Backbone:
C-alpha cells in the first residue's frame, strides 16, 4: 500500500444514469427517489432556463435540504420572472428553512426582485411584508431607502413598520427624517417604535 | 504613431461581466489596475487594435485559446510548501483516522487539492503522508490536483521550485524528496508520478462531475475570489464530489458556514474543517 496514481473517475455501480440528460430526462430525474440524482438534475437544469416552473414546483414539495439548496441556486442563476415569483411563493410556506433560504436567494437578485417589490410590500399578509423588508436588508438596489420610507409612511401594521424602521437605522439618510418623525406621531403609544425611530434619527444626524 | 491601447470604464464592466460568466471569478472595482494591466498586455501580444477587437476575438474565437491564456494570466499563483501546515497535521492525526474507522472496503483513499497552483500543496500532502501517516502502509492513497490554469498545471507536473517555495520545508525533507537543479529544486519522480493533475473550472457542473468520490478536499484561498452565488454553487458541487463523511478544508480566512448549510463544522485539535455528514448520499 502506498501513494498510487489516480483514475479520474473510478468505476462504480451507483453512477449508472437512469435518466437522459435532456430537459425531459432531467425533469423526470427531479422526482427520482435518490436525493443525489435529484441534486444533479436540479444542477443540470440550469442549461434550460424554461425549467424554472418545474424547479419551483419541486421546491415546494422537496423535503431534502441538500436538494432544496441546489434548486434555489439554480433558480437564482436562472433569475427569470418565473423563478422570482417562485421564490416569492416560498415566503408563504410554513417551512422556515425554505422561507429563509428563499429570502437569501432573493437578496442576490436585486434587479429581478425590484419590479415585484412594490407588490410584495402591499401584500395582504403582514408576514410576507416583513419578509419583504428582510429581503431589503441586503438587497443591493438604489431604491431600498425609498421603499422603506414608503413602508413606514403607509403600512398600518406595527411589526412591519418596526422591521422597516430598524433597517432605516442602517441605510437611512436625511430623506427619511420626515417619515420617521411622522411614524413617531402615528404610533405615539408604541415604545418600541419611539425607541427605534429615535435611534434611526440619531444615526442619520450623526451620519 | 499608433494610438496607445486603453481600457475605459465601460470596457472594464463589459469584460468583468463576461469573465465572471465564464469562470465565476468576480473582479471588484479595487482590482481595476490588475485587470487593465493584464488585458493591455494580451491586447498588445495579440496585436489587437483596441479593446473592442480584442473582446470580439475573446468571445468568438472557436478554439477558445485566447480565453484560456487570459484565464491563466488573470489567476494568481503564489504559494509555498507546507502553507497552513496545521491542516496537514489535522489530516494525518484526525481526518484520516475517522475515515478509515468507517471504511468497510479497501478502496483507495482519495484526496483532492484544488486549485493546484504550481503543485506545492498536492506534493506537500504527499510528503506529509509519507512522513507522518503511519497507516500509509495499510492503505492506498490517490492524490488528484486541479486548476483552471493550464500553464500552471504544466508547471506543477514539472515540479520545479524556487528556494522561496521550499523555505519552510525541513532540510531533511528537502534533501529526501528534491534534487537540486541550478538555483531551483525539482521534486523527485516518484512523487511527480504519484499526483494526477487535471484541469477543472469549479463553477462548471459538467467538469465537476468528473471529479468525485473524494474523502478529503483541500480548497484553500480560492472561494475568496468568487461572488456569493458562485461560492454557494461550488460548495454544492464539492458536496457531491465528497464521499459521505468526507472533509473539506478551506483557507484560514474562509468559512463554509457563511456559504452553505450543507456541511457540519468539525473542530479537531489541529483545525476547524467541514464535513459532509455520514449516512447521506
Residues:
Amino acid at each position: 500500500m502506498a501513494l498510487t496514481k489516480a483514475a479520474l473517475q473510478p468505476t462504480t455501480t451507483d453512477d449508472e444514469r437512469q435518466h437522459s440528460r435532456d430537459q425531459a430526462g432531467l425533469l423526470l430525474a427531479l422526482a427520482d427517489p435518490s436525493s443525489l440524482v435529484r441534486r444533479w438534475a436540479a444542477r443540470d437544469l440550469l442549461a434550460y432556463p424554461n425549467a424554472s416552473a418545474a424547479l419551483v414546483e419541486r421546491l415546494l414539495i422537496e423535503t431534502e435540504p441538500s436538494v432544496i439548496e441546489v434548486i434555489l441556486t439554480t433558480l437564482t442563476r436562472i433569475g427569470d420572472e418565473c423563478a422570482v415569483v417562485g421564490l416569492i411563493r416560498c415566503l408563504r410556506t410554513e417551512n422556515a428553512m425554505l422561507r429563509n433560504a428563499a429570502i437569501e436567494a432573493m437578496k442576490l437578485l436585486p434587479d429581478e426582485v425590484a419590479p415585484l417589490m412594490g407588490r410584495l410590500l402591499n401584500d395582504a399578509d403582514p408576514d410576507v411584508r416583513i419578509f419583504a423588508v428582510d429581503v431589503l436588508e441586503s438587497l443591493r438596489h438604489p431604491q431600498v431607502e425609498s421603499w422603506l420610507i414608503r413602508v413606514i409612511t403607509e403600512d398600518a401594521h406595527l411589526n412591519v413598520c418596526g422591521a422597516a424602521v430598524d433597517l432605516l437605522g442602517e441605510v437611512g439618510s436625511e430623506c427619511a427624517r420626515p417619515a420617521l418623525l411622522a411614524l413617531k406621531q402615528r404610533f405615539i403609544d408604541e415604545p418600541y417604535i419611539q425607541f427605534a425611530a429615535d435611534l434611526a434619527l440619531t444615526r442619520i444626524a450623526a451620519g | 504613431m499608433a494610438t496607445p491601447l486603453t481600457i475605459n470604464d465601460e470596457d472594464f464592466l463589459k469584460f468583468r461581466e463576461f469573465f465572471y460568466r465564464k469562470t465565476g471569478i468576480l473582479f471588484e472595482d479595487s482590482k481595476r489596475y490588475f485587470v487593465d494591466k493584464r488585458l493591455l498586455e494580451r491586447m498588445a501580444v495579440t496585436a489587437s487594435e483596441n479593446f473592442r477587437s480584442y473582446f470580439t476575438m475573446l468571445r468568438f474565437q472557436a478554439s477558445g485559446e485566447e480565453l484560456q491564456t487570459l484565464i491563466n494570466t488573470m489567476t494568481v499563483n503564489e504559494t509555498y510548501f507546507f502553507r497552513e501546515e496545521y491542516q496537514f497535521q489535522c489530516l494525518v492525526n484526525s481526518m484520516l483516522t475517522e475515515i478509515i474507522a468507517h471504511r468497510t472496503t479497501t478502496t483507495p483513499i482519495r484526496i483532492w487539492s484544488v486549485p493546484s497552483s504550481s503543485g506545492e500543496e498536492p506534493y506537500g500532502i504527499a510528503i506529509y503522508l509519507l512522513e507522518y501517516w503511519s497507516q500509509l502502509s495499510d492503505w492506498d492513497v490517490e492524490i488528484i490536483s486541479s486548476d483552471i490554469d493550464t500553464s500552471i498545471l504544466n508547471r506543477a507536473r514539472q515540479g520545479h521550485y524556487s528556494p522561496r517555495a521550499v523555505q519552510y520545508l525541513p532540510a531533511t525533507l528537502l534533501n529526501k524528496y528534491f534534487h537540486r537543479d541550478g538555483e531551483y529544486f525539482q521534486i523527485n519522480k516518484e512523487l511527480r508520478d504519484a499526483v494526477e493533475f487535471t484541469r477543472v473550472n469549479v463553477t462548471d457542473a459538467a467538469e465537476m462531475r468528473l471529479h468525485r468520490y473524494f474523502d478529503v478536499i483541500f480548497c484553500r484561498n480560492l472561494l475568496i475570489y468568487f461572488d456569493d452565488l458562485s461560492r454557494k454553487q461550488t460548495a454544492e458541487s464539492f458536496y457531491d464530489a465528497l464521499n459521505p463523511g468526507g472533509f473539506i478544508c478551506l483557507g484560514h480566512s474562509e468559512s463554509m458556514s457563511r456559504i452553505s448549510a450543507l456541511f457540519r463544522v468539525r473542530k479537531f485539535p489541529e483545525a476547524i474543517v467541514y464535513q459532509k455528514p455520514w449516512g447521506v448520499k
Notes: The beta strands of chain B are 109-113, 141-147, 160-161, 178-181, 184-187, 195-199, 214-219, 242-250, 264-267, 272-275.
